[in-house]
Design a protein that fits this description.
By secondary structure, the protein is α+β, with helices and mostly antiparallel strands. The protein has 3 helices and 6 strands, in the order ααββαββββ. The protein has a single domain (3-132), classed as Thiol Ester Dehydrase, Chain A (Roll). It is globular. This is PaaI family thioesterase.
């Protein structure tokens, strides 16, 4: 899948990702990478990207990863659990998310997503469980 097709997949299935400006960088069943640019409208009063913005990036990236790992006969996923650890803030540049599947079962898919800043430093780590529908 091309990056353009991947971005279209994000935006068509999750309109919030379009509002946030999420851009797909890599979209395969083994790894999904996306990013969003720092923007003042997505920040807290201190100029750091809001935690909810980062969680939306992680959830969207993880959802695409889960979707690409659906078992035969399943058509969609939905997040049933998500846990995020925030380690540092982003005050400029991009937040880049990388999601990988930890478990792809018949009913649930577990995905781990790391968010890094432009220097490659770990900003947040999310583990989420997606139900196969």
């Amino acid at each position: 899948m091309t990056d353009t097709d991947g971005t279209a997949l994000f935006h068509s299935t999750m309109p919030l990702s379009a509002k946030l400006g999420v851009e797909a960088l890599e979209v395969t069943p083994e790894r999904v990478r996306s990013r969003l640019a720092w923007d003042e409208s997505l920040c807290t009063i201190g100029g750091a990207l809001h935690g909810g913005t980062l969680m939306a990036l992680a959830d969207s990236t993880g959802a695409v990863c889960a979707y690409l790992n659906l078992p035969e006969g399943k058509q969609a996923t939905t997040t049933v659990e998500s846990k995020t650890n925030f380690l540092r803030s982003i005050r400029s540049g991009h937040a880049t998310a990388t999601a990988t599947p930890l478990h792809a079962g018949r009913s649930f898919i577990v995905v781990e997503t790391e968010i890094r800043d432009d220097a490659g430093k770990l900003v947040a780590k999310t583990t989420q469980t997606q139900a196969s529908l």
